Amino acid sequence: MFNKLKQFKDMRSQAKELQSKLSDESVTVKSAGDKVVMTMDGNLTMTGLAIDEEMLTPDMKNKLQEGIKDAHKNAMSKIQRIMAMKMKEMGGMPNFPGVS
After folding, report:
1. Which CATH number fits domain 2-89: 3.40.50.720, 3.20.20.80, 3.30.1310.10, 3.90.1150.10?
2. Per-block mean pLDDT, blocks of 10 residues, the chain (100 long)
3. Spacing of C-alpha 32 from chain mean position
4. 36-41: strand order across its sheet
5. pTM of this prediction?
6. Given this model, what pLDDT does residue 33 score?
7. What DSSP element (H or E) covers 85?
8. Which residue from 4, 6, 22, 77 puts its CA 20 to 30 A from 31's CA?
């Protein structure tokens, strides 16, 4: 039982370390012909969104919505790759019996 508690404590410690390392990471992606620019940090928080004035007209509404969705999808993908690399650098996460 104490072994499992130690493993849990170690996992929490690794998670905190990973979160700290990821807070220093940031990605910026562009979509809609570079008219939508989104920045996201390693904690999956959108920290910036820039929209070209040309996209703010009523007839561009659908393109703007798609541009924002595409930028978010791309930012999430890039951050997830960074997260995976950071976890790998830290030796991965421990395997716990019964937890997959």
Report:
1. 3.30.1310.10
2. 80 83 91 96 93 92 94 95 86 55
3. 20
4. 26-31, 36-41, 46-51
5. 0.72
6. 95
7. helix 61-89
8. 22
